[in-house]
Amino acid sequence: VPEDAIHRRPDGFAHSLWDLLYHLWFTQRDILLFCRDPAYTEPEWPAAYWPTPETPGDWTGTLAAFADDLEAMIGLTTTGDLFAEFEHAPGYTLIREVLLVADHNAHHLGQVIGLRRALGCWPPPSLG
């Protein structure tokens, strides 16, 4: 992604690429923490899940953290019964959370592609 495109919002788009990446990372990380931590506390919705103008825009670091957390989420699928309810959250299962991450990421990936098209940086050179 060209650096000058990361924070731009073309007409008709509510979010920048940075906004979407941050939201994807934060939400996925939140779900991962929920799965792992019996003492999990839910962040404030929606404020915590979307960046503010003051949120540092570390594109490369956030992209790497997103990829690492996605691998961790996938790794959880090998740790036990996908359908067993969490002791700390009756009614919630790992398969539910994995599917939630997949659905959420797919939804926003569609937005990222539409935004990149509007910004003139889609398809990426490797797909060109």
The gist of it:
This protein is mainly alpha-helical. The protein has helices at residues 17-36, 59-76, 94-119, and strands at residues 85-86, 89-93.
Commentary on this structure:
It is a single chain. With 128 residues, the chain is mostly helical. The protein contains three helices and two strands. A two-stranded antiparallel sheet has the order 1-2. Helix 1 runs parallel beside helix 2 and helix 1 runs antiparallel to helix 3. The mean pLDDT is 95.
Shape: elongated
DSSP summary: helix tally = 3
Mean pLDDT: 95
* β-sheet strand percentage: 5-15%
Helix and strand succession? HHEEH
Number of strands: 2
Largest sheet: 2 strands, antiparallel
**Share in helix:** 40-55%
Low-confidence stretches: none
Secondary-structure class: mainly alpha
Radius of gyration: 16 Å
Strand order of the largest sheet: 1-2
Measured between the Cα atoms of the first and last residue, the distance is 14 Å
Key terms for this structure?
128 residues, mainly alpha, two-stranded antiparallel sheet
Could you outline the blueprint of secondary structure elements for this entry?
Blueprint lengths: L16 H20 L22 H18 L8 E2 L2 E5 H26 L9
Helix pairs in contact: 1-2, 1-3
